[in-house]
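During the second year of the project, the team shifted from modelling isolated chains to modelling whole assemblies. The rationale, set out in the original proposal, was that interfaces cannot be judged from single-chain predictions alone. As a representative example for this report, we include one of the complexes processed in the last quarter. Its constituent sequences, exactly as entered into the pipeline, are reproduced here:
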Amino acid sequence: MLSVDKKKCFYCGTCVAVCPQAAIELLDTCEVAIDEGCVEYVCRKWNCRLCVKSCPVRAIYEV
Ligand code: SF4
Ligand code: SF4
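Output from the structure prediction step:
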């Protein structure tokens, strides 16, 4: 499962832009939401992790 460290995330949108599945959203509450369905099936199957690699402050991590 992927999670976002809210203390590190500065809401830049890079992870949203790189996700090939459009599985990441910036919410109005200044939070990043990752679609759990995508994480369970697509992210694992492809071992994508583009969001993890592209975050400039390493705010997305595996839990
Ligand atoms: S790339 Fe990182 S800092 Fe930028 S919105 Fe995504 S989680 Fe936050
Ligand atoms: S691992 Fe890939 S498909 Fe899954 S949320 Fe991150 S960028 Fe999107």
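The longest strand covers residues 24-27. The mean pLDDT is 90.
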